[in-house]
């Protein structure tokens, strides 16, 4: 009877590990400051402006750009609202930030694109009115207002990628460049720096090449030399185990010549 009990406990221990989710695929959110967004759009922003003050500029783990804690007076209750917004280059604590249609064109202020002249450098631009920021949010990035189409009520932007985007003219944007630019100019130099960089983001480093694996683990694995042994391109609709390499590539090979940006084409 005694032996049977020991055996039963061992069974319990061995099967218990199958339960629960894996921590591998979770984002590392410890000490994160919160979602960085524009204010919720309200009457004050649509028709006039509202004043806020930058209380502090914070470092957000896993984010290359600093964030600003901006405090506004609540329009309806006796309280203050704290918002986390992107810090633009030149922003400082104690600075007044103005959000709204009638705000001035100053670095850090939030205006609708329709109130911004062509050629203005903006960041944290909305894709739809009231979505609180979608484009040009990474450190050192910015978008440029290219043109306004008043008949259609749309505006054309040049994004950090060089592509063009048409958005409704009512979408809001912050004026200026996102702070923290030049972050990628300095090389990581050693594996330890890369380890710490990605340890606060998510489990995505180090990445093992497919050709270095066995055929049971990856479609590119195996063989007497490290070679792919099949086209490196792969269709968009391939099953998940086979979908690796250059997925749905429009072209392959070296990029030759000067890359044409949206500015050059127009």
How are the strands of the biggest sheet laid out side by side? 5-10-6-7-8-9
Distance N terminus to C terminus?
85 Å
- Spatial extent as radius of gyration: 25 Å
Give the helix tally.
Answer: 4
Mean pLDDT across residues: 92
**Number of distinct beta strands:** 12
Globular, elongated, flat, extended or rod-shaped: what is the shape?
Answer: globular
Task: Describe the protein.
This protein is α+β, with helices and mostly antiparallel strands. The chain is 12% helix and 22% strand. The chain has helices at 2-16, 43-47, 191-199, 262-265; strands at residues 50-58, 67-73, 80-86, 96-99, 110-112, 121-123, 143-149, 154-158, 164-168, 172-175, 233-234, 246-247. It has a six-stranded antiparallel sheet, with no helix packed on it. The model is unreliable at 10-14 (pLDDT under 50).
Q: What is the compact description of this entry?
A:
The protein is 12% helix and 22% strand. With 266 residues, the chain is of the alpha+beta class.
Which descriptors would you attach to this protein?
six-stranded antiparallel β-sheet, alpha+beta, four-stranded antiparallel β-sheet, 266 residues, 4 helices
